[in-house]
Every structure is written in structure tokens, then in C-alpha cells.
């Protein structure tokens, strides 16, 4: 059996861009359905950095004052290593960012969206409804009940990430390796000398890409590495081997990781469609947001603020 309904807007994907979009539209009084194939809270591999760009928007939406209610770590700048010898300190007390694990931060935004719009978790979009070259809605399956659902709308928002079903069905998800990065993240305990600054290491053998240490609450840190896929293919690189080798051999890191321990089960990878690729982001009846729109900063890998 199929269930049918109509909405002003369907937002596919309840990550930061989808939830913020739903909050905005809900405040404006539109009839919105926000769907996601996961059940929240859910993990999302990421560097977990929420930059000043994001903070500005959170303040505009009246959400920043609620951040103290969730687990987070205020950050007061960045330390950038351009080699083993060259270090640049960036201080930013005026527009302070923070870190928060995405399992926490995304759920915070999702819960705020739930106050304003209808949501459907564990719903997998399988196809778009297209009539006369206009996107008119989505088809999907409720993963709990196995019920098919058809939902029509004036606009479909594709905020469903790097492997966006919406972008794929519109033929907008084709990327060359030079326009895509791959990254790996793991949570560590007991790294020594972790400050309140984001640490970025642009080292010769990781270029084009970088290694990072981002401070988290409770003495943990988000540690990871990212690199442009074309370079990984050319050099036949394993990100995990490269990351662990850097920790073991780099004089900037070895001593600091001497007593460090990985948090079990926290090693995860993901793909980043970079903004160097010019992706069509809107059309007749649809708009793409977030990773689905290829908005990731090719220098820092930041996606949330964009």
C-alpha cells in the first residue's frame, strides 16, 4: 500500500543544512516535511568544527544561546603548521567557534526543527516525481513499516549529503577525482598538550590535504586526515596508514600521542564533494544544499558553515 500526501516543501536530509532550512521555512509558516533515512541521534564522520560562519547564523536564528545545553568545546582560534618548522597562530576572540560531535550537534538542530515542522525518520527516498520537467515530489519507503509513501510538494530540497539521492536522480552527482576529497576521523583520549585551538598540519607528504587535531569536551580530541582523491589514487595512498605513520614518526606528534588511546569504534571515513566543481544547485522545483550542493571549502574541508 502507498500513502500519499501534499506539502509546500519536502526537505530530504536532516543534517545541518536540511534542519536549518526546515527551521527557516517552519518559522515562515510553510507546511514542511523533513525526512531522513537515519534515526536520530546518529553519528556523522566529520572534523566536528563549528566555525565562526556557522556561529553567525546560529546567532541570527537565536540558537547560539542554547549551545551551552549540549556537549561542546569552545575554540579560540587555530594553530596552523605549514611544515615541521613554520607555525602560524590565529586568534579570533570576536567570532569564536566551537567543536561538537555531530551525533550531538546534528541532533540539537534536528530537535529544533521538530518543534516547527513535521519529520519522518527512517524514511528512504527512492525516486523523485518529475512531471513536465518539473520536480513535483518524492517517492520513498518507511524503513520501519515498509510502507511506500508518495509525497508531492512545490519544492524539493536535496540536503541529503555527499551521496545525495536527489542530486543522483537529477544527474548532478558526477565528480572527477580532482574535485573530491576523502577523509578519516577517529576520536582519541589522552593526547598531551591539547589546547582550545584547532590544529591543522599542512605537511609535504599529506598535500593536497592535511592532518588535524580538534579539541573536544571531556579531554577527547577529533583526529583525522583528508586528501584530494586524485592524489590518493596517483600515489596509491591508504589514509589510515598515512595517518598512523604521521602520528608514529612526525616529531610534532609522536611525543604527544605516547599515552593516547583511540576511542573504540570511532574510526570512520567519508567523502567530501569540493566547491571546486561547479554543480548546478537549483532548477525547476528543486534546490540542493550542503554536501549535496558541493559546498565544501577545498582548503579547510569545512562544509557546515557554507
Give the helix/strand layout.
Layout lengths: L1 E11 L3 H12 L4 E4 L13 E2 L1 H9 L12 E3 L1 E5 L5 E5 L5 E3 L2 H13 L3 E3 L2 E9 L2 E9 L5 E11 L6 H5 L10 E10 L8 E4 L7 E7 L4 E9 H7 L3 H11 L11 E2 L5 E6 L8 E2 L2 E3 L18
Parallel strand pairs: 1-2, 1-11, 2-8, 5-13, 11-19
Antiparallel strand pairs: 3-7, 4-7, 5-6, 9-10, 10-11, 12-15, 12-16, 12-17, 13-14, 14-15, 18-19
Strand content: 35-45%
Specify Rg, calculated over alpha carbons.
Answer: 20 Å
The major sheet is characterized as: 8 strands, mixed
Which overall shape is indicated by the principal axes computed on the Cα atoms? globular
What is the percent of helical residues? Answer: 10-25%
**SSE series:** EHEEHEEEEHEEEEHEEEEHHEEEE
Low-confidence stretches: none
Structural class: alpha+beta
What is the residue-averaged pLDDT? Answer: 95
Discrete helix count: 6
Distance between the termini: 40 Å
Would you report the number of β strands?
19
Description:
The protein is an alpha+beta fold and 306 residues long. The chain is 19% helix and 35% strand.
State the main characteristics:
alpha+beta; eight-stranded mixed β-sheet
Amino acid at each position: 500500500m502507498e500513502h500519499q500526501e501534499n506539502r509546500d516543501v519536502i526537505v530530504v536530509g536532516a543534517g545541518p543544512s536540511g534542519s536549518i532550512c526546515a527551521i527557516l521555512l517552519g518559522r515562515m509558516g510553510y507546511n514542511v516535511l523533513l525526512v531522513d533515512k537515519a534515526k536520530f541521534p546518529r553519528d556523522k564522520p566529520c572534523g566536528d568544527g563549528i566555525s565562526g560562519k556557522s556561529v553567525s547564523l546560529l546567532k541570527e536564528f537565536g540558537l547560539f544561546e542554547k549551545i551551552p545545553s549540549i556537549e561542546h568545546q569552545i575554540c579560540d582560534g587555530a594553530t596552523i603548521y605549514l611544515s615541521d618548522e613554520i607555525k602560524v597562530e590565529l586568534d579570533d576572540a570576536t567570532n569564536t567557534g566551537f567543536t561538537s560531535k555531530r551525533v550531538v550537534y546534528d541532533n540539537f538542530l534536528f530537535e529544533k526543527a521538530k518543534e516547527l515542522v513535521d519529520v519522518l525518520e527512517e524514511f528512504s527516498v527512492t525516486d523523485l516525481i518529475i512531471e513536465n520537467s518539473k520536480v513535483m515530489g518524492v517517492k520513498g519507503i518507511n524503513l520501519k513499516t515498509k510502507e511506500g509513501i508518495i509525497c508531492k510538494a512545490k519544492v524539493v530540497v536535496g540536503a541529503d549529503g555527499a551521496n545525495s539521492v536527489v542530486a543522483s536522480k537529477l544527474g548532478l552527482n558526477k565528480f572527477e577525482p580532482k574535485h573530491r576529497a576523502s577523509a578519516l576521523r577517529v576520536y582519541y583520549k589522552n593526547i598531551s598538550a591539547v589546547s582550545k585551538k584547532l590544529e591543522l598540519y599542512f605537511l609535504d607528504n599529506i598535500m593536497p590535504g592535511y592532518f588535524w587535531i580538534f579539541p573536544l569536551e571531556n579531554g577527547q580530541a577529533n583526529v583525522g586526515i583528508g586528501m584530494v582523491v586524485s592524489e590518493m589514487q596517483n600515489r596509491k595512498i591508504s589514509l589510515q596508514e598515512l595517518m598512523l605513520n604521521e602520528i608514529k614518526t612526525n616529531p610534532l606528534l609522536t611525543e604527544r600521542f605516547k599515552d593516547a588511546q583511540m576511542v573504540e569504534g570511532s574510526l570512520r571515513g567519508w567523502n567530501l564533494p569540493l566547491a571546486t566543481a561547479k554543480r548546478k544547485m537549483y532548477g525547476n522545483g528543486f534546490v540542493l544544499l550542503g554536501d549535496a550542493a558541493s559546498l565544501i571549502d577545498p582548503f579547510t574541508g569545512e562544509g557546515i558553515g557554507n
